User: What shape does this take?
Amino acid sequence: MGTAAADAPATRRNLWRRRLWCAAGALVAALFAVLAVWLWSDHRRGVEAERTGARATATVTEVDVQNLGGGRSGGRVHFEFTDVEGTAHDGDVLLDRRISRYQVGQRIEVSYPPADPSAAVVIGDGTDPAPLPWVIPAIGAAVVALLAAYGAWCVRRAHRVLRDNPWVEVPSRLVQVGVGAGHALSLLELDGAPDDGKVLATAISWRTRPMADIARRTWVAGDDRHFYLAGLGGAPVVRAKRLRLTKHATGIEHVTTPLHSRVHPDQ
Assistant: This one.
């Protein structure tokens, strides 16, 4: 069409929205990472308190048992103790099923930082002041960061191809290719792009829309290696690849009614 595909207003908006999603993912990953660091710091504080803190004998004053579902129980154990200077303090720890070991009035050994006796932990029971294991948000941060990075890479690749190639409008037809076991794959048969002749294309984007959305008149940009499809106007942008039929394909059927899914059971 004479200009870069990336310059089409609808295409520009589509790519911009994808960049915003990637930025949002990066922000969520950063928040997960901050949470993981905070929980790790709390965890280390509990470990250090048990290892190097002052020791005292405490009395259990309350056992708050809660049903966590799935046959699991947990809750808080409250206790009181007197430090080496004779000052009384209250404390509590969060436990899982180990809470069943404790009863009101029971005497337990605790360790506490002299500068903050309220952060006392029960010795030998692995009590952790962190409300959640730090590794959970750390894994979440890593997963979301990888997804955001992959998404950003996909957007950058799409922009590079669409910047260097114009949109070409070609007629297209929605077809079904039998793939055995009563299933069929919905594809687009493009006539004249990304090269001369007819090309069977399938979407390979990580978030695809039904091929019927861009059938009949389709915009194509790119070459045989990297090309993108779009509906009239330049959106939605779908990364595609050429499909080469194998001996497992059972035939091609042209579809005249709109489809709403790429894979259909043979009713």
